[in-house]
Design brief:
homodimer, 448 residues, alpha+beta, BirA Bifunctional Protein, domain 2, 9-stranded mixed β-sheet, 5-stranded mixed β-sheet, 16 helices, ATP binding (chains A, B), HisRS-like_core (chains A, B), nucleotide-binding (chains A, B)
């Protein structure tokens, strides 16, 4: 029998789990600062819920075996379950975050922090609102998280699906090929233009002239000046959707300026995003000081039609959201902080030590007293452990205090308390033990 | 397309998610008080890891579809993944908690808080220690959690697999039928003796005399007096394993008395526990004041051989642990507290309000200032929302403060602050806005 976790998955041992929780807590703090509530959905959905939402990526969905009953599949992201929840409960307005694992049968490079099972941290705003106000807040949320996690300099690439559609139309792509050409453009962050060009011509059947014209557009990247240039592009001007998209982006850039994140933004026509469901603004955050292979660490966009797909009446609930790829951020921090023996994995405040043989029942009494007062306490699970071994255990585990129980002291109603780091010891009365311990924990500044 | 969650699963909406998180936080607090570190493992395991661990219940395991690659299955509990982790990493000693969802293709009664996807909260102690010291702490942990969650009176039933084996031997059950007879005994909490008796005779092929003798033993339930009686039982006396089991239970009861949980304990020979892997003490907590259908809310026991099953050298790592059925506890609390509109699901401290048209850019500036100071703030995503609608939103969402932005006040460098509950308003200077808001939040006692 092979002793391993499934391909593309990993365990998080205590030190990694502690570090990851700290990372997640900071992400949650940002989500909550922006007023989001949380939601939890099942790890699997009816297969039909996931069907037709992910384009080419559908082949990466994990199906469950047919063991009788409903066809099921593991969730591929948290966005589709969110949309299903909104439609099912007829919710028209919601700001929610969801932190949970998603599943993709990819061939990920685990060395670069990419897995088949990985956490996503999603923040989404659903509701019929005025243009770009929720969209700007999503970008602000990404910027706050990446700034606070201190992962170095980053750029948020920005584009618009309707603008891309306009570009495709101008270049002469037939309408029914918009989505598939969009998938090709999406590969530009991983492949050179020549490869993508060949794919468009050979696999997708486009004209060379069309493809080269697309190539001109998608190499554009900039800010307001690019926006101005595109707004006065004679051909794009004729396409209403593209003009509205440019107006959206102009407004978004204005809001981003007020939110003091302009210098992070890059309006980038090569950004396409893989998934089918986007309908408006799309964005993706990439780290600048990190090797390319880390790729994007956050991405999202507007998907105004997804909820309607679940709704028998097709009631539209416009949504915009962002997903933080916490696993890659964790992988960067893990390498940086050298996860290891120095990370404290327990919160024990007091270790109850036997000074000599025959004291385990007294130890249990003292432990019980500490627990009932809410003090975090442990002891050795040996009846007669060696004194030195117990003290070494305290040092190794960075437990701040030891209560040392000895026959002589007990006869006088006392125990010895040792500050583990300084090795200072003093006698305290059993009667005032709890208060004394509390005082010492405060002095030693042990977080509760 | 059917718009539902898969059979036996549920969403947790914001109010339920908040309540469940509170419940989990209290459970975690107890686990940490006892010094446990946490661990996270993948939601699926290699199929072979789960094979041969669950006896009859194996048929309830969710398999993943064969899509090429390794045969995988969703975890059935958190114990087997823990044992796999210990063996794989050659860990000989560990106290860990793990809170995560597990999956069982059962036909659960969702009205009673039983699901196919449900959270387990596990606490386990692995290591070679002196008898019953870790076991007693597991029982203490269960008692603390059930006491602190305030779910009413409860009993912890206690038994020992080696004692049951002794009973079976005394009654004349062939050794190779011990486990299957054990499964029959396990059904006694759901079926009357007559039905179980018939199953043993007709399906398991035991003598009537054997079965009736088993019936006598498994109807026994008590405390020290029962222990004394069994210890002097002439037939059991001849079986070394049974005698050692009785000595274990005697020691455990002594430790439980020191931990002040004796009055909760019932030594109950009908307790068998379904799973194959237990090798020693077993226990199960049941609520007294709740309808029977809730069943057990916690269960566990000693499994000394499980880690060795994963280990090529069969290195033994003795373990004992407990699993809290948080979903059932949640279901009880949910009914009791009437989850609903009164549960606050966001933590927003300040809502920034436009007093009239044309102020959305100023609102964004103020919001950005609040966020950058770590204050939890929101606004309407409409450019020109109605004043009344904004104030009503604050009241409905229980947001404590509103900053009301108006042209006249802004010209004087001021904004109005409203305490939402009391509707008291006052003007504050934009220069000191942050301090004033902080002061008010402290006065209103808004938790950070």
């Amino acid at each position: 029998m092979s002793l391993k976790t499934p391909k593309g998955t990993r365990d998080y041992g205590p030190a990694e789990a502690v570090l990851r929780q700290r990372l997640l807590d900071r992400v949650i703090q940002v989500f909550r600062r922006h007023g989001a509530a949380t939601l939890d959905t099942p790890v699997f959905e009816l297969r039909s819920v996931l069907t037709g939402k992910y384009g080419d990526d559908s082949k990466l969905i994990y199906d469950l075996k047919d063991q009788g009953g409903e066809p099921l599949a593991l969730r591929y992201d948290l966005t589709v379950p969110f949309a299903r929840y909104l439609a099912m409960n007829n919710v028209r307005q919601m700001k929610r975050y969801h932190i949970a694992k998603v599943y993709r049968r990819d061939n990920p490079q685990v060395t670069h922090g990419r897995y088949r099972e990985f956490y996503q941290c999603d923040f989404d705003i659903a509701g019929t609102y005025d243009p770009m106000l929720p969209d700007a807040e999503c970008i602000k949320v990404v910027a706050e998280i990446l700034t606070e996690l201190d992962v170095g300099d980053f750029t948020v690439k920005l584009n618009h699906r309707r603008l891309l559609d306009g570009v495709f139309e101008v270049c002469g792509v037939p309408k029914d090929k918009f989505r598939t050409v969009c998938s090709s453009v999406d590969k530009l962050d991983k492949m050179p233009w020549d490869t993508v060009r060949r794919e468009m011509i050979e696999e997708k059947g486009l004209d060379e002239r069309t493809v080269d014209q697309i190539g001109c557009y998608v190499s554009e990247c900039g800010g307001i000046e690019l926006l101005d240039r595109l707004s006065s592009d004679g051909q794009l001007n004729a396409i209403e959707g593209a003009m509205r998209a440019l107006a959206d982006i102009r407004l978004l850039l204005q809001y981003c300026a007020i939110f003091k994140v302009s210098e992070r933004i890059s309006f980038d026509l090569s950004l396409a995003r893989g998934l089918d469901y986007y309908t408006g603004v799309i964005f993706e955050a990439v780290l600048k000081d990190t090797p390319d292979e880390v790729g994007s660490v956050a991405g999202g966009g507007r998907y105004d039609d997804l909820v309607g797909m679940f709704n028998p009446k097709r009631t539209k609930v416009p949504c915009v959201g962002v997903s933080i790829g916490i696993e890659r951020l964790f992988s960067i921090q893990e390498k940086r902080t050298m996860v290891g023996k120095s990370t404290r994995t327990n919160e024990t405040e007091v270790f109850v030590v036997s000074a000599h043989r025959g004291l385990h029942l007294r130890r249990l009494e003292i432990l019980n007293q500490l627990w009932s007062e809410g003090i975090k306490a442990e002891h050795s699970y040996k009846q007669n452990p060696k004194l030195l071994a117990q003290l070494q255990h305290c040092e190794k585990r960075q437990i701040p205090l030891a209560i040392i129980v000895g026959e002589g002291e007990l006869a006088r109603g006392m125990v010895k308390v040792r500050e583990v780091a300084s090795r200072q010891e003093e006698y305290i009365s059993l009667d005032t033990m709890i208060e004394e311990i509390r005082k010492k924990l405060t002095t030693l500044n042990v977080p509760e």
